[in-house]
Amino acid sequence: MFGISAQRVVAAAILSALATGAAAHHGWSWAEADQIELRGTIEKISMGGPHPTLDVATADDGVWLVELGNPRQTERSGFVEGVAKPGDQVVALGNRSQDAKEKRLKAVRLTIGEKRYDIYPDRIKTN
């Protein structure tokens, strides 16, 4: 009477795996606790999901992948398509990857010219 069908078990397993993968991707566990400023020139902007990204060329350390918030969160910060373009100077404040070989930063704030985009205002540790 209370038996669980094989279909439901498989569906539950798939949903669990998807939820676990999404949580791992969207978490901050891969990033260092301390924040750094990354200065460079935007080479490429991608506004697609799951997170908009920038490729930022630095003077001393090559090209970094800078991840922003999810598309809605990034948009709420004011960083929308057209506010920046390749060639613009950017300062990204954020948490870098714990893997020192990986040039990857999760940005909490972007500054382009005089304009600040606070993507994760509650995570900004400095003004």
Helix content: 10-25%
Largest sheet: 5 strands, mixed, barrel
Helix vs. strand class: alpha+beta
N-to-C SSE string, H for helix and E for strand: HEEEHEEE
- Distance between the amino and carboxyl termini: 61 Å
Order of neighbouring strands in the sheet with most strands: 1-2-3-5-4
Q: Describe the oligomeric state of these chains in a short phrase.
A: single chain
CA-based shape: globular
What are the low-pLDDT stretches, counting only 5+ consecutive residues below 50?
10-25
- Rg over alpha carbons: 18 Å
Q: How many beta-strand segments?
A: 6
Strand percentage: 35-45%
Mean pLDDT: 85
Describe this protein's structure.
It is a single chain. This protein is an alpha+beta fold. The chain has helices at residues 6-26, 71-76, and strands spanning 31-46, 53-58, 62-67, 89-97, 104-112, 115-118. A 5-stranded mixed beta barrel has the order 1-2-3-5-4. Strand 2 and strand 3 (62-67) form a beta hairpin. The protein starts with 5 loop residues before the first helix and ends in a 9-residue tail after the last strand.
